[in-house]
Specification:
Elements lengths: L1 H7 L5 E4 L6 E4 L2 H13 L4 E6 L5 H13 L2 E6 L9 H5 L5 H11 L3 E3 L3 H4 L20 H4 L3 H16 L3 E5 L3 H13 L5 E5 L19 H7 L1 H12 L3 E2 L1 H13 L2 E10 L8 E2 L5 E9 L2 E8 L1
Parallel strand pairs: 2-5, 3-4, 3-6, 4-5, 6-7
Antiparallel strand pairs: 1-2, 8-10, 9-11, 11-12
Helix pairs in contact: 8-9, 11-12
Bound molecules: adenosine monophosphate.
Length: 303
């Protein structure tokens, strides 16, 4: 185990580990990654890519598993991207569990872990070179409450897509708005990669698995289930007509569990246009962002 921590702090650029009878490469430099992937492409292997910020849990691993079923090569990245944090404390407190991440990925059959540092991702510095035209998507929900967040997401994803050039990109529905933003980014940068949105994995009580859950006490974790309960309440009880009443009742469930909502919104699943009056036909999604103590959690449910 110790060797991983050692590796992370040294100048060694590429490592192959074989604890579970399968080789997983750990690569820090994009030029080494490009060389490895070129070889894979030359033997017609497709590349499935899972970008993450680490502190991996079963949700991340479900994406890795699916990528393994559908591709010749599975590449995961771990990079806590400074440009997508609008809150410095959130960035500094973001959980880091690299040793266990490596073991989990290796066990799940990941072929290559890309572990770049900031200079590798942002060789010209972290100031954005491009402003991505995200339009409406950037003005609502996460875009509204986390100014600059999606520009940072696009910055890192643009760079990662250039480096990895995957055939398929695996994303979690938990970050639904991010999935739409990345879809828009792929259009803007004319990437042919296919996006596969995977279902949200949950704890037994319904709380969406999240790296940030590591920052919750046992009691907070219990109360944070209120987010799932509020979403389920909406999904079970929504009827055609005005949605204000049901949103208010779901909001009350959050308050009962000491959750402080940034938003609780019902929107069109296609484009996140807010729904005030639901016609009973349009595919809708309920989305919540709420604080449990100092930890901000998001979740959603398709209706
Ligand atoms: P993150 O490390 O939080 O940036 O997440 C990396 C990827 O894992 C994103 O595409 C997330 O949407 C996805 N993900 C995070 N949590 C879950 C979950 N509970 N179930 C499924 N996918 C998830």
């Amino acid at each position: 185990m110790q060797r991983y921590a050692f590796f992370a702090e040294t100048a060694v650029e590429t490592l192959a580990i074989t604890t579970f009878n399968a080789i997983m490469f750990i690569i820090k430099q994009s030029k080494d990654l490009a060389r490895y992937l070129q070889k894979q492409r030359s033997v017609k292997k497709t590349i499935g890519f899972i970008p993450t910020m680490g502190a991996l849990h079963q949700g991340h691993l479900s994406l890795t598993k699916k990528a393994g079923e559908e591709n010749g090569v599975v590449v995961c990245s771990i990079f806590v991207n400074p440009t997508q944090f609008n809150d410095l404390t959130d960035f500094e407190l973001y959980p880091k569990t690299l040793e266990s991440d490596i073991l989990l990925l290796e066990k799940q059959g990941c072929d290559l872990l890309f572990l770049p540092d900031v200079a590798e991702i942002y060789p010209s510095g972290i100031s954005p070179a491009t402003a991505y035209e995200l339009g409406y998507l950037e003005s609502v929900l996460e875009g509204k409450y986390r100014p600059g967040h999606f520009q940072g997401v696009c910055q890192v994803m643009h760079r990662l897509m250039e480096i990895v050039r995957p055939d398929r990109l695996y994303l979690g529905q938990k970050d639904y708005q991010q999935c739409l933003v990345i879809g828009k980014l792929l259009e803007l940068i004319q990437s042919p990669a296919e996006i596969i949105i995977c279902p949200t994995l949950r704890e037994p009580g319904g709380l969406a698995m999240s790296s940030r859950n590591l920052r919750l006490s046992a009691r907070e974790k219990q109360n944070a289930q209120g987010i799932y309960e509020a979403l389920s309440y909406i999904s079970r009880n929504i009827k055609p007509g005005e949605v204000k009443g049901i949103a208010e009742r779901a909001g009350a469930l959050l308050i009962q569990k000491e959750l402080t909502a940034d938003y609780l919104t019902i929107a069109r699943a296609e484009d996140l246009r807010i729904i005030d009056v639901w016609d009973g036909q349009t595919k809708a999604i309920a989305l919540i962002a709420a604080f449990m103590g100092k930890v901000r959690l998001i979740d959603n449910m398709i209706i």
